[in-house]
Amino acid sequence: MTAQHSPIIVPPGSDLPTTIHATAISVGESGLLICGPSGAGKTSLALRCLAGARSRGWHAALIADDGVIVSMVAGRVLASCPQPIAGRAEIRGTGIFSMSCQSRARLTAVIAPGQPVGEGRLPPEDETVSLGDRVLPLLRIDYAARIDPLEVLSIAGVVPRL
């Protein structure tokens, strides 16, 4: 089966670095870019992943929340944080909080919100997304699901096996 391409986040040939509306985290050795519209649950999913990773004794850190700088260095896609929001995360309806962060991470996958019901509930297999001239795997997750998102990411091979 051939890979399915999702909408392009950063078009090929774009000037990099560029800032996009997303959240980025580092879990173990995986850099994850969490995408979606405002209110989709990007920060909540990121916090759930970070808490789950820490409870397992894995490295886990916020890279950026709401604004992620995407750049290309030595053929790798990197995520970093604009300085004004470094180490800060907005928890919708609660406030903006300071938290531990890491300056950058090599992105290994992109996460987008999944639709748990209806026609789009099963996304295409082997879906990918373009970030500049690179293509990364795309995994869709229902951001509101009660399942541990690290379980889903582990089954998909994005983070270490649990």
Secondary structure blueprint with pairings:
Layout: E1 4-5, E2 18-20, E3 23-27, E4 30-34, H1 42-55, E5 60-65, E6 68-73, E7 76-80, E8 88-91, E9 95-98, E10 104-113, E11 127-131, E12 134-141, H2 149-155
Parallel strand pairs: 1-11, 4-10, 10-12
Antiparallel strand pairs: 2-6, 3-4, 3-5, 6-7, 7-10, 8-9, 11-12
Protein name: HPr kinase/phosphorylase C-terminal domain-containing protein
Domain HPr kinase/phosphorylase C-terminal: 18-99
Pfam family, one: Hpr_kinase_C
Describe, in plain words, how this protein is organized in 3D.
This protein has 2 helices and 12 strands. The model has no long low-confidence stretch (mean pLDDT 86). β3 and β4 form a beta hairpin. It has helices at residues 42-55, 149-155; strands at residues 4-5, 18-20, 23-27, 30-34, 60-65, 68-73, 76-80, 88-91, 95-98, 104-113, 127-131, 134-141. The strands form 2 sheets. Strands 1, 2, 3, 4, 5, 6, 7, 10, 11 and 12 form a 10-stranded mixed beta sheet that branches. It has a single domain (4-155), classed as Rossmann fold, CATH 3.40.50.300. By secondary structure, the protein is mainly beta.
